[in-house]
Amino acid sequence: MGMVNVKVNVKTQDKGYxxxxxxxxxxxLSLVTAMSYNAARVQMRLTxxxxxxxxxEALAEAGIWLSVNTLLSTSSNNLGRYTNYTGNLQYHQSxxxxxxxxxASLINLNNANAELLELLITPYTESSQETETLIQNxxxxxxxxxxxQNNSSEExxxxxxxxxxxxxxxxxxxxxxxxLVIGMTDALFRNISPFLTIYGTHTQINSQxxxxxxxxxxxxxxxxNNSIQRxxxxxxxxxxxxxxxxxxxxxxxxxxxxxxxxxxxxxxYRILAWQPSELIKKNS
Length: 284
Fold this sequence. Notes:
- By secondary structure, this protein is an alpha/beta fold.
- The chain has helices spanning about 1-70, 115-120, 130-140, 155-160, 185-190, 210-220, 225-230; strands spanning about 85-90, 95-100, 105-110, 195, 205, 230-235, 240-250, 250-260, 270-275.
- A five-stranded antiparallel beta sheet has the order 1-2-7-8-9, with helices on one face. Strands 3-4 form a two-stranded parallel sheet.
- It is flat.
């Protein structure tokens, strides 16, 4: 009888292990199913977002080309209407917001002379000597020689400041490069960089499209009004900043381009830059 009881207990124990194993397998399969379902949902969401992004970017680019076509089809006498323009376009039943702004609303860093730079920088410096020195350093970065102020070489000036580089001796390749100029502080750069560009050939600022803050800076109390006026114009330049924004499912997708109108038939325009908005100009 004792032997029989042992056999029954073993079988009962085996059944218990089997039941636990089955429960674990069911739980594991449930987890795998849930993970697969969640993975599928994530993949569907990613695919949806990717398609929305592609659609948004394509629509924003369509807005760019529609705007470029508008500029090309406008006579030079009427380009002034687009020096500071905002509007909406319809493309394949989608709304696209567009802004067109004269590039001359910004100061050309590579073309600006010392006097114009002084008008821009003076409100943010503590003395005329500081302003003069910084302007000289900016010009030294651009000019082709190695001579600096105080009859010293540019390399020596930067070496004494513990900088392991020297001026490029060529035009700035980006506004951010201005950060490298000796004497340029982060605070000063943040204040003046939104009003600078390295594109175009203009030497005057279009007062019809320049930001009011820039015009106020140039018209500070210490400025000579005659000096300011020679740098202002109401005539459009031949280059424009075009920004196109398409909204897809509540998300904005933007494209910004700087275009130069050449006035030639064969190649009537040139794309100077096609970059994210924040790399070109201050966000509106």
